[in-house]
Structure formats: C-alpha cells, structure tokens
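Sat 14:20. Reprocessing the chain from the morning session after the first attempt stalled halfway. Input below, unchanged.
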Amino acid sequence: MKYAKYLELALTIILPLIGVFFYQWSIGDIYALFFLELIFYGIFAGFKVLFSTNGAKIGQRFYSLFIFGFIYFLLFFSIVVLTGHFFNGAGQEMNLTIGMGAIYVLATNHLINLLIFIFSGDYRQANHYQIIRLTYKRAFVLFLVLLILMLPFSTFIDTTKVNFVLAFGLIVSKAILDFITVHYWKKAKTITN
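Finished this time. Tokens:
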C-alpha cells in the first residue's frame, strides 16, 4: 500500500499522454484535465482530513477542513481569473475534446487512492495537517504548471490544435514536479516519525 501515491502519479501521467497521442487532445484539453485534477485533489484531500485520526479531534479536523477549503478555493479562483485574463476569453473557442471517460478515470483514480488510505489503515497514522500540506504542495505544482509553463505560450499557440512537443513538455514537467513533491513529503514524513 505504500506505493499508492506512485500509482496515482503514474495514472495522472499516462492519462494525458494517451489523450494526446491517441485521441489528439489539444493543449486546451490538457489544461482542462489539470483543472479537473486540481478539483479532485481538493475534494479527496478533504475526505482524507475527515478520516484521519492521528493527533486531532473531530472538531479540529472540521475547523482545519474549513480553513483548507477556503484557502484552496482562493487558489483555484486565482488560477481561473489569471488564466481567463491571459487567454483573453479564448476558452469559448478551445473546442475541448476531453471525454467523460477521462474524467471518470481521473475521479476513480482519486477514489481508489482514498479507499487505499482508509482500508490500509493509513488514516490512523496520518496527521490531518500533513494531508493538507501535501495537498497544497501538489496544488502548487499544478499552479506552477498551469500558470508559469502554460501562460507564456498562450499568446502564440492555438489552444484548439494538437502540439505534441508542448503537450509532452507540460505533462512531463508536471510529472517531475509531482514526483519530487510526493517523494520529498514521504521522506520528510519518515524522518519526523
């Protein structure tokens, strides 16, 4: 069960690569998938916070969940506002081809990770603050990929076309940053325990 995070990372890498190379997803599709992933991170982290029992009573966990949700909403809202500004309303012309199947796979991936968290007993050892910190780190990775790596290209790329090099670069950049974040968190967790 200790490799559940790595399985989750593998699927979040494989899904957009399959979409780009086999279904001709555009940059806009990858962008939309990363937005959905950001939403799923927040939702399932909230469940993990509620289930975690190490170090906090239920009232503290609900309070932490409220603060986490508020900050996470602000982060997500800032991404939406900034991308809307840089893309200049081009979202209406993106012609997204991402299907519901991809969304189901992404949601199922996060659900399986949550079930592994519960049934493996990790919820008994997990501190809700650690879960929140990891979620912020992973959200920050997506924030970096979406804003820093994507927005400079928004002025001269056509988001409705498939650009294999840029798509591959975005996916690999996110994967590397995500792996570093999860691997570093696991190392820090074993050092503190």
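Residues 15 and 167 are 12 Å apart (CA to CA).
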